[in-house]
Design a protein that fits this description.
With 368 residues, the protein is an alpha/beta fold. The chain is built from 14 helices and 17 strands. The strands form five sheets. Strands 5-6-1-7-16-2-17 form a seven-stranded mixed sheet, sandwiched between helices. A hairpin with a 3-residue loop joins strand 10 and strand 11. The protein is elongated and about 65 Å long.
């Protein structure tokens, strides 16, 4: 049976901010969506494909690729780029923008010396080019994606509603991302945030009600998010090269995400020095234990020999995505209350409990 199913993914919608949607729809289910470890790129792989980092093959967006070797002219050019960028932040941003355009992939603020050793390996699980089966591909969903329509929630929902009314889609998926950006840039204690929440409430309810009116009470809907957020209150300035020298394929390589610091050790003689360096910030977070890595599906050392996770409301600054802290951030311990997203549906699973990102995949797939 080709059951009518509507799936709406609202990036970063916190659990407690879905209440008005639940009330307006008289939803049967409102659960805490508990993310997997890391950022959206990995949480989405769990939610849409049931794949943890070890299964999908990457953790976070940028990762060390030991097969990458710098050609001679790149090695010669790096000191020049570093010298030019040392004059001011504007020049550094312009150079990074030029490299982004030349490579055809966004390199953010990755240091020039490290960039040639990295690979952008993360893929978004609901995009058409994702390499593994998802419940979207298995269920033959029509998709309205923010990546195609723009990071504008109203435009995405309007397109989805128009498509539904014209095509009467029995399987429809909608993804939005504007709320995530609002929270990062403006925080959660401002009118801009409240306005965005109100907009999502109105547009999501309208789309769901239209879907049910077209397909009847047998239609199922699922609205969920990948995480919540916590306000960022403290920047953490940590540069491991001050303790261990310059990174290279012969020594060590590191990536600084907003809340993670990942290190790949190529010279075992540096291991003690590297672990000792992290002792200096152990009061601000911790290195993931072997038990945690097994739990989160991060056993493969290609994700990093050392993965350090900051405590809630702290952020590495500078990091490989920018020089400054965000107003709000995710990617902390998944069990924290602040990190819970929302899961809303007309299936009968109750209220107040929780559902893991892996279970969201299994649940929706069971209704295909």
């Amino acid at each position: 049976m080709n059951r009518p199913i509507l799936v709406i993914f609202v990036d970063a919608l916190p659990y407690d901010r879905a209440v008005n949607i639940v009330n307006a729809l008289k939803a049967d289910t409102h659960l805490k969506s508990i993310p997997g470890v890391g950022y959206s790129i990995n949480v989405k792989a769990e939610m849409f494909a049931g794949l943890k980092p070890d299964d999908v093959g990457y953790f976070c967006e940028w990762n060390y690729n030991p097969e990458n070797k710098s050609v001679w002219w790149v090695k010669l050019g790096i000191p020049i780029l570093e010298w030019l960028s040392s004059f001011n932040h504007f020049i550094d941003r312009v150079i990074h923008k030029i490299i982004t355009l030349a490579r055809g992939e966004r390199i953010y603020a990755i240091p020039y010396r490290i960039l040639p050793m990295l690979k952008c390996s993360g893929l978004t699980a609901y995009e058409h080019n994702f390499g593994a089966p998802t419940f979207l591909s298995e269920g033959n969903f029509n998709r309205v994606l923010y990546s195609e329509e723009g990071v504008n929630d109203k435009k995405v929902f309007d397109k989805a509603l128009e498509k539904l009314r014209q095509e009467k889609n029995k399987r429809l998926f909608v993804s939005t991302a504007e709320l995530d950006g609002v929270m990062h840039h403006y925080g959660m204690s401002c009118q801009r945030y409240e306005d965005q929440i109100s907009l999502i409430e109105e547009l999501a309810v309208d789309l769901i009600q239209e879907f049910i009116s077209i397909h009847g009470e047998q239609a199922k809907y699922f609205l969920f998010s990948d995480h919540g957020m916590a306000p960022v209150l403290e920047p953490v300035d940590f540069d491991i090269s001050k303790y261990c020298g310059q990174p290279s394929n012969e020594s060590y390589v590191y990536v600084v995400d907003a809340t993670f610091y990942r290190v790949w050790i190529n010279n075992e003689g540096l291991r003690t020095k590297i672990t000792d360096a992290f002792e200096n910030i152990n009061h601000l977070g911790h290195v993931l234990t072997e038990e945690e890595r097994i739990k989160y599906g991060l056993v493969d050392q290609k994700h990093g020999d050392i993965i350090f996770l900051l405590n809630e409301s702290k952020q590495f600054a500078p990091n490989f995505f920018g020089k400054e802290i965000s107003q709000a951030m995710h990617g902390y311990d998944p069990e924290l209350k602040s990190q819970a997203g929302a899961f809303v549906s007309n299936i009968n699973s109750g209220f107040g409990g929780s559902i893991s990102s892996m279970s969201i995949y299994e649940t929706i797939r069971s209704f295909l």
